[in-house]
């Protein structure tokens, strides 16, 4: 009999619908683990610790997370995150105080965001009905437009006189590692292609450096097709020629915007999964749905848990459990295919209904 592998997971539901979707994801993962114990083949379990950080915590303490938060997180096997942001706290304070603090300090430099079309979910794209569509956005997650470099000054000039500078940082090291990651990922896919996205006609320093590094790295992968596309043209391509995409690599901001577009094209932001990876495994990686905290529907049982559960599948892959990840993905497809859908994708099921259906599908 093989020993049970126990994964220590830090759960950070944070704000709004984050609480509902993390609870759903935990229930589905625990059901999967319970089943693995029953047949004792490659059994695994989860040891959860939940952290109360987020905007509510900020209102009580003046901090989005504890000062020793990173120290407390660093030895977990992974972080399972919900969503950050609430109208009572400025968005830049909540984002930098929690999600970006974790991503940047744990050098989670690769943010993987698959664009996955699911059975039973209507896409606004007409060609999604009869064309195989499946691509993944690889977001540079440590620098670029999110480097946090700059400042505000000269407020002393009075109303209307203040200035602000926000610089983007592009390093050869940062560009090269995310591009190699994208090329290695492309080699695992049916279509071996990497599309690099910039706005290097206008951003003539950082993004031209990105293009130069892309050409240099591409030379090491002669078996992988490439293209370099400006972000405006790539937005159009997402809508008009998505069948030509496989791996799309882009800077922090461009990839954030493109992946939201991709999720919307797949039917809803509520469906999209993501992994913030520290590929060297010096720090825990963080798995979270792409969507935010959705204050308009929070606490009403309306949130779509599929993005969070899909992120759990990415976490299982990271743990070296691809068969379990595939099982979870099949349960997602069985659930949406059976028409058990939340409101954002045209159904009337609650978060709880979808969670129960996912667990039933695992056991079917
Ligand atoms: N679960 C993802 C999340 O909470 N996102 C909040 C957000 O505003 N993110 C912006 C960003 O990370 O660029």
Automatic annotation (TrEMBL):
<dbReference type="GO" id="GO:0046553">
    <property type="term" value="F:D-malate dehydrogenase (decarboxylating) (NAD+) activity"/>
</dbReference>
<dbReference type="GO" id="GO:0051287">
    <property type="term" value="F:NAD binding"/>
</dbReference>
<dbReference type="InterPro" id="IPR011829">
    <property type="entry name" value="TTC_DH"/>
</dbReference>
<comment type="similarity">
    <text>Belongs to the isocitrate and isopropylmalate dehydrogenases family.</text>
</comment>
<dbReference type="Pfam" id="PF00180">
    <property type="entry name" value="Iso_dh"/>
</dbReference>
<dbReference type="InterPro" id="IPR019818">
    <property type="entry name" value="IsoCit/isopropylmalate_DH_CS"/>
</dbReference>
<protein>
    <recommendedName>
        <fullName>D-malate dehydrogenase (decarboxylating)</fullName>
        <ecNumber>1.1.1.83</ecNumber>
    </recommendedName>
</protein>
<keyword id="KW-0520">NAD</keyword>
<dbReference type="InterPro" id="IPR050501">
    <property type="entry name" value="ICDH/IPMDH"/>
</dbReference>
<feature type="domain" description="Isopropylmalate dehydrogenase-like">
    <location>
        <begin position="8"/>
        <end position="358"/>
    </location>
</feature>
<keyword id="KW-0560">Oxidoreductase</keyword>
<dbReference type="GO" id="GO:0000287">
    <property type="term" value="F:magnesium ion binding"/>
</dbReference>
<keyword id="KW-0479">Metal-binding</keyword>
<dbReference type="InterPro" id="IPR024084">
    <property type="entry name" value="IsoPropMal-DH-like_dom"/>
</dbReference>
<keyword id="KW-0464">Manganese</keyword>
